[in-house]
Amino acid sequence: FAKSAQIEMKCKTPRQTSPKAQSWTLSDQEKKVYGNRTPKDYIKLDILGRGGCALVWLAKQTATKQIVALKQFPKNQGSIGSAKVEEDIFKQLGSNQLNADHEGNKSISHLLSTIDDKKDVWLVYEVGGDSLSKALFNIKGEFHKGERIYFINHQDLYRSIKKNKNMLRQLLVKLFNAFDLLHENGIVHADIKSDNILVTYNSSEIIDVKIIDFGSAFMFETAKCISMSTPEYLAPEILSYLDNSNNPKYKEGVTSVFKTMKVWSYDMWSVGALLLEVITGFPLWLSLKGRTRSITGKQIFGM
């Protein structure tokens, strides 16, 4: 574990993060695409996240007062196929009692219902705790003498895991149970990262874990193609295929890659990358060319 609760990093090529929005603000383009639409019987409370083809809203069901996540897919953007993929994944998970009784079922944010409106398809999901990334560190950046300076302030969960390694075991057990369920059903999540893991915890225990965002998920045996998700968490053979898919060695398409993989291989590499973040307290998206040192000026590790 990194020894300092605060790290300073200089980086020649800054990269923007995608933090959870703290206020209800839409860009002009988002206003055109998503409008001010809300499904009947729901009230929007905040924006939880932005994806390539959807917005995710924190919302309340007016009759039951239940707090949910609403994933909005505008029909005029050709994104209905993505919503259908997520629906199919959860139909598979809900297909038998063995899945319902599986321990890993507790660690997946489940699809509660689908709302098909005139202009949008809305997927209604369970909500969970904080994103793992926010529970581990808070990142602030500013420019100084032509360079981007990042301050990484370690948060309560990172400090708790550093003191109590059993919490790391608890986190991994809950994640592995969820992956066991997914992989038994031939499902690859394909976008495992700290932003897509929700955690509920106290100073001594990981109480709950929820895997979210199945927008990149696919069935391993029937997949015809795969798309780029978050490159820092992808296995080298996947990145190589995505960068060189026209190469003759990939003449069979994604099947050429999957011949050397198991259903669990894709996500397990991502879990290893995720574990690296938890252990070091350092987000993978920061440039590998950066110079990293503690707040006192001591070099942590060379990049």
Overview of this structure, please?
This protein has a domain at 156-301: Transferase(Phosphotransferase), domain 1, CATH 1.10.510. The strands form four sheets. It has a five-stranded antiparallel sheet with strand order 8-9-1-14-15. A five-stranded antiparallel sheet has the order 2-3-4-6-5, covered by helices on one side. A hairpin with a 5-residue loop joins strand 3 (55-61) and strand 4. The two termini are 17 Å apart. The protein is built from nine helices and 15 strands. It is of the alpha+beta class. Residues 1-22 have low confidence and may be disordered.
Short description:
Keywords: Membrane, Transmembrane, Transmembrane helix. This is Protein kinase domain-containing protein. The protein has a domain at 156-301: Transferase(Phosphotransferase), domain 1 (Orthogonal Bundle).
Give me the CATH superfamily of the domain at 156-301: Transferase(Phosphotransferase) domain 1
The number of helical segments is 9
Query: Which regions are unreliable across 5 or more consecutive residues at pLDDT < 50?
Result: 1-22
First-to-last CA distance: 17 Å
Oligomer: single chain
Structural class: alpha+beta
What order do the strands of the largest sheet run in, or round the barrel if closed? 8-9-1-14-15
**CATH fold-level topology of the domain at 156-301:** Transferase(Phosphotransferase), domain 1
Q: What is the number of E strands?
A: 15
| Name of the CATH architecture of the domain at 156-301 | Orthogonal Bundle
Computed Rg: 20 Å
